[in-house]
Design a protein that fits this description.
Order of helices and strands: HEHEEHHH
Distance between the termini: 92 Å
Number of strands: 3
Helix content: 40-55%
Radius of gyration: 30 Å
Oligomer: single chain
Low-confidence stretches: none
CATH architecture of the largest domain: 2-Layer Sandwich
Strand content: 15-25%
Structural class: alpha+beta
Number of helices: 5
Largest sheet: 3 strands, antiparallel
């Protein structure tokens, strides 16, 4: 899986004839240690295209991975990857989630977009400063009788 994530590409062992040469040392070791197996590893991709995990499938060497099977595995990884990534993000400590949320809000505040958000925060900040430091007198006049 590490080979596939590092190369950010689908790796098949034994490698088909039309494929370019890729690093398959771990795939070769895994295939031989499990008794002459065919292996296909498909990386999970983030929205920015970088790989963050992988799906590894094995079968007997007689049943090699053809292009149609590899395409199905790639589609499966494209569907399962975002779900697994979201599950991983939601399974963290509450403090880490709060920290990430704070970072997101600060990025919105200082980033190039989100003008309405910035205006609202600035308005709230002005009101807080105004009510904290503003002083004044209030005089009420009225007719009274004792």
């Amino acid at each position: 899986m590490g080979e596939s994530v590092d190369q950010e590409d689908i790796l098949i062992y034994p490698e088909p004839e039309q494929a370019s040469s890729r690093v398959l040392h771990a795939h070769e070791l895994l295939g031989r240690s499990h008794g002459d197996r065919a292996i296909c590893t498909v990386p999970f991709a983030r929205p920015d295209g970088r790989a963050f995990g992988a799906l590894t499938l094995e079968r007997s060497a007689a049943e090699f991975f053809d292009q149609e099977t590899v395409d199905v595995c790639d589609s499966l990884a494209a569907l399962a990857g975002p779900i697994l990534r979201e599950q991983r993000r939601n399974d963290r400590f509450l403090a880490l989630k709060a920290w990430d949320s704070l970072k997101t809000q600060v990025q919105k505040l200082v980033g190039p977009r989100h003008a309405v958000y910035k205006s609202v925060v600035l308005g709230i900040l002005v009101l807080v400063v105004l009510f904290t430091f503003a002083t004044g007198r209030c005089r009420v006049t009225a007719k009274t009788a004792l």
